[in-house]
Amino acid sequence: MEIEAQVSSEQYLKVIMEFFFKKPIFIFFEIIGILLLGCYILGWNLENTVSTPIYYLVFSLFFIFVNPFIFYIYSKIQISKMPEITEKIIYYFGNENISLTGKNFDSLILWEDIKKIIENSNGFILIQKNKILNFIPKSALNNNYDKFKNLLIEKGFRF
């Protein structure tokens, strides 16, 4: 099965942000930030000092706003440094491997090197063992959506 796909840098950034902000560690730090902000606003002093420490506010703002913003900027920089992300890529899904062909690269991925496949509203994220993500938008699948999903199920992936 052959799929030709091209992802814009904005689409790729959206996929990365959606993928990583759903991770439990990001959610945990957001909750910690909200709790610290609540403690600061309500004047709850967890350390029994005279006043609520200012670092409650500092850490809450860092966890809620600064940390996600830094991740966003870092992701944009990484995407701009890797132009092959936005190239038109031809994926060929064979029995033993997946072949990727772009303008400036050729790559071969063995099925056993695919750790996980996630389907979201925009497409499919293929996660390799070495933490490389490949994104195939649903718009590139055209009428092959069911055929592609069945191929992935045959290879042992669950959704």
Automatic annotation (TrEMBL):
This is YcxB-like C-terminal domain-containing protein. Residues 93-152 form the YcxB-like C-terminal domain. It comes from Apibacter adventoris. InterPro entries: YcxB-like_C (IPR025588). The keyword Membrane applies. Keywords: Membrane, Transmembrane, Transmembrane helix. The chain crosses the membrane at residues 25-43, 55-74.
